[in-house]
Write a structure and sequence with these properties.
By secondary structure, this protein is of the alpha/beta class. It has helices at residues 3-7, 23-34, 47-59, 74-88, 111-132, 159-179, 206-211, 221-232; strands at 14-17, 38-43, 64-68, 93-96, 141-145, 185-191, 243-246. The radius of gyration is 17 Å and the shape is globular.
Length: 252
């Protein structure tokens, strides 16, 4: 197989990446487009950044669609899926990336924070997947973005966030089984510490976090995007209901 074939392994496919305007989501958008997919992405607040990313995609010859949607709003989530399929003509790949990252001691967490976390990290992937499978044919790919905190919570204050990401394990396994007869795969990627604005590799806690990581350093967002692209591509066709840790050995 030539390099060109590998890089165009998603030629003719259409993907939707929720929360695709920055960080890991933006890296996923770039990688899927580089491999030949047309890409829709949702954002909540920063339209300029999302529009600039879409311009990067179109500069490569791929189509891009920017959709403003609050992932805490189920109607907005389902509407974004339907719009992506309608305007780009089909939907082959859904990446449930948008997330809420609310931390704090158990006694300080409010019910509103609980509801927000569950709405974005659990309900939104469920609603988006429910909408997406109505558009997908055989070969469809659903990829959830979780967190290594679901498997190893070494820091205090992660109870709410870890709980929400752990729920994606059950969702992924169950949907992998349910959608298998339709040849639609469902997988979960657990990033570890990744160099983003939310958790920069030169941040105040970086040295401590690196100490828990076998490789001793943060991931680049492109490392996570590479795993997503593999699962989205033809070589991922026999992987479903699986969890892939991209965490540098944090959970080893």
């Amino acid at each position: 197989m030539t390099t060109n074939t590998i890089m165009n392994s998603l030629e003719g496919k259409v993907a939707l990446v929720t929360g695709g305007g920055r960080g890991i989501g933006a890296a996923v958008v770039r990688r899927l487009a580089a491999q030949g997919a047309d890409v829709a992405l949702t954002f909540q607040h920063d339209r300029q950044r999302a529009t600039e990313l879409a311009a990067e995609v179109t500069a490569t010859g791929r189509r891009a669609l920017v959709i403003q949607a609050d992932s805490a709003d189920p109607a907005a989530v389902a509407g974004a899926v339907d719009r992506a399929a309608a305007e780009l003509g089909r939907l082959d790949i859904l990446v449930n990336n948008a997330g809420a990252f609310l931390l704090g001691p158990l006694q300080d967490l409010s019910l509103a924070e609980f509801e927000q976390t569950v709405a974005v990290n659990v309900r939104a992937p469920f609603v988006a997947t429910q909408a997406a499978v109505r558009h997908m044919s055989a070969g469809g790919r659903i990829i959830n973005i979780g967190s290594n905190a679901a498997e190893r919570a070494v820091f205090p204050g992660f109870s709410l966030y870890s709980m929400s990401k752990t729920a994606l394990i059950g969702l992924t396994k169950s949907l992998g089984r349910e959608l298998g007869p339709r040849a639609i795969t469902v997988n979960l990627v657990h990033p570890g510490a990744t160099d983003t604005e939310l958790n920069p590799a030169d941040g105040p806690n970086a040295a401590t976090i690196n100490g828990f990581t076998a490789l001793g350093h943060y991931a680049d967002p492109s490392d996570v995007a590479a795993a997503v692209a593999f699962l989205a591509g033809p070589d991922g066709r026999y992987i479903t209901g699986a969890t892939v840790n991209v965490d540098g050995g944090f959970t080893a």
